[in-house]
Design a protein that fits this description.
The chain has 194 residues and is α/β, with parallel strands linked by helices. Helix content is 36%, strand content 10%. α2 packs parallel to α3. It is elongated.
Protein backbone atom coordinates (compact mmCIF):
# COMPACT_ATOMS: atom_id res chain seq x y z
CA UNK A 1 0.00 0.00 0.00
CA UNK A 2 1.14 3.54 -0.76
CA UNK A 3 2.09 5.17 2.55
CA UNK A 4 2.46 8.72 1.19
CA UNK A 5 0.56 11.16 3.41
CA UNK A 6 -2.48 12.99 2.04
CA UNK A 7 -3.73 16.42 3.12
CA UNK A 8 -7.41 16.94 2.24
CA UNK A 9 -8.79 20.45 2.17
CA UNK A 10 -12.25 21.68 1.21
CA UNK A 11 -15.32 19.55 0.90
CA UNK A 12 -17.43 18.53 3.83
CA UNK A 13 -16.54 16.39 6.83
CA UNK A 14 -18.31 13.44 5.17
CA UNK A 15 -16.27 13.87 1.97
CA UNK A 16 -12.98 13.74 3.89
CA UNK A 17 -14.15 10.77 5.98
CA UNK A 18 -15.27 8.89 2.86
CA UNK A 19 -11.87 9.50 1.25
CA UNK A 20 -10.10 8.05 4.30
CA UNK A 21 -12.49 5.08 4.44
CA UNK A 22 -11.81 4.30 0.79
CA UNK A 23 -8.03 4.49 1.37
CA UNK A 24 -8.42 1.95 4.16
CA UNK A 25 -10.61 -0.37 2.07
CA UNK A 26 -8.31 -0.25 -0.95
CA UNK A 27 -5.29 -1.05 1.21
CA UNK A 28 -7.17 -3.70 3.21
CA UNK A 29 -6.26 -1.94 6.45
CA UNK A 30 -8.23 -0.77 9.47
CA UNK A 31 -9.22 2.90 9.73
CA UNK A 32 -8.20 4.68 12.93
CA UNK A 33 -9.74 8.14 13.47
CA UNK A 34 -8.04 10.67 15.75
CA UNK A 35 -9.74 13.90 16.82
CA UNK A 36 -7.54 14.97 19.77
CA UNK A 37 -3.78 15.22 20.30
CA UNK A 38 -3.99 12.83 23.30
CA UNK A 39 -5.15 10.00 21.01
CA UNK A 40 -2.34 10.47 18.52
CA UNK A 41 0.48 8.60 20.32
CA UNK A 42 -1.36 5.29 20.65
CA UNK A 43 -2.89 5.60 17.16
CA UNK A 44 0.55 6.02 15.57
CA UNK A 45 1.55 2.65 17.06
CA UNK A 46 -1.01 0.86 14.84
CA UNK A 47 1.43 0.70 11.95
CA UNK A 48 -0.75 -1.36 9.62
CA UNK A 49 -3.63 1.14 9.68
CA UNK A 50 -4.83 4.22 7.87
CA UNK A 51 -4.74 7.05 10.40
CA UNK A 52 -7.40 9.68 9.68
CA UNK A 53 -7.38 13.10 11.33
CA UNK A 54 -10.59 14.96 10.32
CA UNK A 55 -9.08 18.35 11.23
CA UNK A 56 -5.32 18.50 11.71
CA UNK A 57 -5.65 22.03 13.14
CA UNK A 58 -7.58 20.59 16.12
CA UNK A 59 -4.41 18.71 17.17
CA UNK A 60 -2.66 21.97 17.99
CA UNK A 61 1.05 22.61 17.70
CA UNK A 62 2.11 19.61 19.82
CA UNK A 63 0.05 17.13 17.79
CA UNK A 64 1.30 18.55 14.49
CA UNK A 65 4.88 18.34 15.78
CA UNK A 66 4.33 14.64 16.60
CA UNK A 67 3.11 14.09 13.03
CA UNK A 68 6.26 15.79 11.69
CA UNK A 69 8.46 13.50 13.81
CA UNK A 70 6.53 10.48 12.53
CA UNK A 71 6.92 11.58 8.90
CA UNK A 72 10.67 12.16 9.27
CA UNK A 73 11.29 8.86 11.04
CA UNK A 74 12.41 5.85 9.05
CA UNK A 75 10.28 3.55 11.21
CA UNK A 76 7.22 1.77 9.86
CA UNK A 77 4.19 4.03 10.24
CA UNK A 78 0.52 4.10 9.29
CA UNK A 79 -0.71 5.92 6.19
CA UNK A 80 -1.75 9.42 7.22
CA UNK A 81 -4.88 11.05 5.81
CA UNK A 82 -5.08 14.54 7.30
CA UNK A 83 -8.08 16.82 6.85
CA UNK A 84 -8.43 20.60 7.00
CA UNK A 85 -11.71 22.36 7.76
CA UNK A 86 -10.51 25.40 5.80
CA UNK A 87 -8.23 26.00 2.85
CA UNK A 88 -4.60 25.03 3.14
CA UNK A 89 -3.46 28.54 2.14
CA UNK A 90 -5.52 30.33 4.79
CA UNK A 91 -4.39 27.83 7.47
CA UNK A 92 -0.74 28.51 6.62
CA UNK A 93 -1.21 32.29 6.52
CA UNK A 94 -2.90 32.25 9.93
CA UNK A 95 -0.03 30.15 11.35
CA UNK A 96 -2.42 27.37 12.35
CA UNK A 97 -0.73 24.80 10.07
CA UNK A 98 2.95 24.23 10.82
CA UNK A 99 5.26 24.97 7.88
CA UNK A 100 7.36 21.84 8.50
CA UNK A 101 4.21 19.67 8.44
CA UNK A 102 3.03 21.38 5.26
CA UNK A 103 6.46 20.73 3.71
CA UNK A 104 6.19 16.99 4.50
CA UNK A 105 2.70 16.61 3.04
CA UNK A 106 2.92 19.12 0.15
CA UNK A 107 3.10 16.35 -2.49
CA UNK A 108 -0.21 14.88 -1.29
CA UNK A 109 -2.33 18.05 -1.24
CA UNK A 110 -5.85 17.42 -2.47
CA UNK A 111 -8.50 20.14 -2.71
CA UNK A 112 -11.91 18.50 -2.64
CA UNK A 113 -13.50 21.75 -3.88
CA UNK A 114 -11.51 21.71 -7.15
CA UNK A 115 -13.60 21.61 -10.35
CA UNK A 116 -14.61 18.06 -11.23
CA UNK A 117 -13.47 16.64 -7.87
CA UNK A 118 -16.99 16.06 -6.55
CA UNK A 119 -17.87 14.12 -9.70
CA UNK A 120 -14.68 12.07 -9.41
CA UNK A 121 -15.45 11.28 -5.76
CA UNK A 122 -19.02 10.28 -6.65
CA UNK A 123 -17.73 8.02 -9.43
CA UNK A 124 -15.21 6.40 -7.05
CA UNK A 125 -17.96 5.80 -4.47
CA UNK A 126 -20.21 4.25 -7.11
CA UNK A 127 -17.37 1.97 -8.25
CA UNK A 128 -16.65 0.93 -4.66
CA UNK A 129 -20.36 0.18 -4.11
CA UNK A 130 -20.45 -1.87 -7.33
CA UNK A 131 -17.39 -3.88 -6.24
CA UNK A 132 -18.92 -4.49 -2.81
CA UNK A 133 -22.18 -5.73 -4.38
CA UNK A 134 -20.41 -8.26 -6.62
CA UNK A 135 -20.57 -11.87 -5.44
CA UNK A 136 -17.26 -13.30 -4.28
CA UNK A 137 -15.37 -15.37 -6.86
CA UNK A 138 -16.02 -19.10 -6.78
CA UNK A 139 -13.12 -21.24 -5.61
CA UNK A 140 -11.34 -23.37 -8.20
CA UNK A 141 -12.48 -27.01 -8.34
CA UNK A 142 -10.38 -29.34 -6.24
CA UNK A 143 -8.16 -31.79 -8.11
CA UNK A 144 -8.83 -35.50 -7.79
CA UNK A 145 -6.78 -37.23 -5.12
CA UNK A 146 -4.16 -39.62 -6.42
CA UNK A 147 -4.02 -43.24 -5.32
CA UNK A 148 -1.31 -44.26 -2.89
CA UNK A 149 0.24 -46.54 -5.56
CA UNK A 150 0.73 -43.65 -7.98
CA UNK A 151 2.19 -41.50 -5.19
CA UNK A 152 4.79 -44.15 -4.25
CA UNK A 153 5.96 -44.77 -7.82
CA UNK A 154 8.59 -42.23 -8.90
CA UNK A 155 7.99 -40.64 -12.24
CA UNK A 156 10.47 -41.33 -15.01
CA UNK A 157 12.61 -38.41 -16.03
CA UNK A 158 11.98 -37.08 -19.48
CA UNK A 159 14.82 -37.82 -21.86
CA UNK A 160 15.97 -35.28 -24.36
CA UNK A 161 14.82 -36.02 -27.89
CA UNK A 162 17.44 -38.00 -29.80
CA UNK A 163 18.53 -37.04 -33.27
CA UNK A 164 17.83 -39.62 -35.88
CA UNK A 165 20.80 -40.87 -37.84
CA UNK A 166 19.35 -39.68 -41.11
CA UNK A 167 18.80 -36.12 -39.88
CA UNK A 168 21.58 -33.73 -40.85
CA UNK A 169 23.72 -32.35 -38.08
CA UNK A 170 23.51 -28.61 -37.80
CA UNK A 171 26.66 -26.66 -37.15
CA UNK A 172 26.90 -23.33 -35.51
CA UNK A 173 28.24 -20.35 -37.42
CA UNK A 174 31.59 -20.58 -35.55
CA UNK A 175 32.30 -24.22 -36.27
CA UNK A 176 30.88 -24.40 -39.78
CA UNK A 177 33.51 -24.50 -42.54
CA UNK A 178 33.02 -22.32 -45.59
CA UNK A 179 31.44 -24.14 -48.53
CA UNK A 180 33.86 -25.27 -51.26
CA UNK A 181 33.55 -23.65 -54.63
CA UNK A 182 32.47 -25.93 -57.43
CA UNK A 183 35.31 -26.72 -59.87
CA UNK A 184 34.85 -27.58 -63.51
CA UNK A 185 35.02 -31.31 -64.18
CA UNK A 186 38.46 -32.47 -65.46
CA UNK A 187 38.79 -34.74 -68.38
CA UNK A 188 40.20 -38.20 -67.66
CA UNK A 189 43.72 -38.91 -68.78
CA UNK A 190 44.04 -40.78 -71.92
CA UNK A 191 40.87 -39.57 -73.49
CA UNK A 192 41.21 -36.82 -75.96
CA UNK A 193 38.62 -34.38 -76.94
CA UNK A 194 38.14 -33.95 -80.58
Amino acid sequence: MNRAPVLLSGGGAQDRAAWAQEAAEVGGRPLVTVTRAEQLGSALMVRSAVLFVPDVLALGDSGQQMLVRTLTSLDERPKLVLGLTRSETSARQAGALREDLHYRVRMGLLNLDAPGMREAIAARRAEAARRAAMPPPRPAPASRPQSSASLARPKAKARPAQRSRSAPRLKSARTAKPAKKARPAKAKKGSKRR
